[in-house]
């Protein structure tokens, strides 16, 4: 190891994070989070109220509720949905534009390839407190070659 940097509730930030939440910080990739969110939404709203093949086309705040206009791709039908809040889990691609929120700073800086893999790395990695591990090219030249992110006891993202 060349160095360590506490992050996300580790080291000197542990007490501050503990005061903010009863749960420790964790990393849940979208492919694991989506089924959890869907199951909870079906439990709370009923399976018949969870829809796929729909697109958000307009979004506003009436002062009393969020108002979303949604298109059913199967029928083309547009309908309004009123809710207390909206989760903008769209990677900054839709909601910000619909609300007139501009992104600040440069975009398109690099290309990224994400890999999810299940493997036993315990021979090389023993510290469960580390969330991200950066690795360098073998000759040590240039910038880092990638990052390895813990996504469970035997799951990794790179």
What does this 3D model show about the protein?
With 158 residues, the chain is an alpha+beta fold. It has 3 helices and 7 strands; from the N terminus they run ααβββαββββ. Among the domains are: 52-104; 111-158, no CATH class. Strands 4-7-6-5 form a 4-stranded antiparallel sheet, with no helix packed on it. The chain has a 3-stranded antiparallel sheet with strand order 1-2-3, with no helix packed on it. Strand 1 and strand 2 (66-72) form a beta hairpin. GO terms for molecular function: FAD binding; monooxygenase activity. This is 2,4-dichlorophenol 6-monooxygenase.
How are the secondary structure elements laid out?
Blueprint: H1 14-20, H2 30-45, E1 54-61, E2 66-72, E3 78-83, H3 95-98, E4 116-118, E5 132-136, E6 144-150, E7 155-157
Antiparallel strand pairs: 1-2, 2-3, 4-7, 5-6, 6-7
- Main beta-sheet annotation: 4 strands, antiparallel
Alpha plus pi helix count: 3
Rg, Å, rounded: 21 Å
Give the tally of β-strands.
7
**Widest β-sheet, arrangement of strands:** 4-7-6-5
Stretches with pLDDT under 50, minimum 5 residues: none
H/E element sequence: HHEEEHEEEE
The whole-number mean of residue pLDDT values reads: 83
What structural class should be given to the helix and strand makeup?
A: alpha+beta
Shape by Cα distribution: elongated
Residue share in helix: 10-25%
Distance from N terminus to C terminus (CA atoms, Å) equals 18 Å
Q: What portion of residues belong to β-strands?
A: 15-25%
Protein name: 2,4-dichlorophenol 6-monooxygenase
Keywords: Monooxygenase, Oxidoreductase
GO molecular function: FAD binding; monooxygenase activity
Domain FAD-binding: 16-151
